[in-house]
Amino acid sequence: MTTEIALITGANKGIGLETARILGRDGITVLLGARSAEHGERAAAALGGEGIDARFVRLDVTDAGTVEAAAKLIDAEFGRLDILINNAGITTTGATGHAPSRTAPDLVRAAFEVNVFGVVAVTNAMLPLLRRSPAGRIVNVSSELGSLTLHSDPSSAVHGVNLLPYNASKSALNAVTVAYAKELAGTSVTVNAATPGYCATDLNEHAGHRTAAQGASVIAGVAVLGADGPTGAYLAEDGPLPW
Ligand SMILES: NC(=O)c1ccc[n+]([C@@H]2O[C@H](COP(=O)([O-])OP(=O)(O)OC[C@H]3O[C@@H](n4cnc5c(N)ncnc54)[C@H](OP(=O)(O)O)[C@@H]3O)[C@@H](O)[C@H]2O)c1
């Protein structure tokens, strides 16, 4: 059987690194996208020490040059890509945030640069490679905080977490997911949004109640669904979430 190739953005730490570890243990070659060569090489070496075929790929999702170079490198080395996990993500207001009325537009813009525009840039660059896979899979790492339905429900735990830049960027990422799924319907490429749950990582100053590995198991689980798996879905550990 041919070894599958997965690219994970923001894979030098947190949920991205743990997702790479799970996929790597499954025998998948994992390409660790990271903007810092030092951090990316270190993560690849750590996984390599565990017997995982892990390689660092320089990739800042906001830098078109690194995105194009990464696609060229993967094309030259492997000629295709089976799994793309758009995991790189930021919050620009910290874990507690500011009221929307006190949020500078630049904070919203910065969140969208990574969490939305970066996903579009990476997806467009990698799609020709994913189309060459017998079962290409794109997983966009979203959040419950992207659910407009949950935000509109005062009884939901999500309702009280009003982080404008992050939440709006994840809602937009959900819209991006649906748009690509519609374009790619009937092809060999599926596109889903998946949410890891609230995990203790640098993103939230380790306030999450789940481990990064627990969150990663949700993302990796969606990534290994076969060609007959869902597309255009918004998936959490316990099943689909309302958009
Ligand atoms: N933790 C949670 O509870 C939670 C819940 C729902 C969804 N998520 C999502 O899960 C994903 C991973 O987050 P995490 O919790 O693992 O956070 P994290 O530990 O802070 O990791 C974020 C990763 O994204 C990378 N990154 C940031 N900007 C980037 C850029 N411009 N280009 C490439 N990589 C970039 C970071 O690289 P550097 O090390 O260079 O900064 C890091 O590798 C994010 O999309 C986040 O929104 C997390």
From TrEMBL:
Keyword hit for NADP: yes
SUPFAM superfamilies reported for this sequence: NAD(P)-binding Rossmann-fold domains (SSF51735)
InterPro entries: CBR1-like, NAD(P)-bd_dom_sf, Sc_DH/Rdtase_CS, SDR_fam
Keywords: NADP, Oxidoreductase
Family indicated by similarity: Belongs to the short-chain dehydrogenases/reductases (SDR) family.
Protein's name in the database: SDR family oxidoreductase
Species of provenance: Actinomadura monticuli
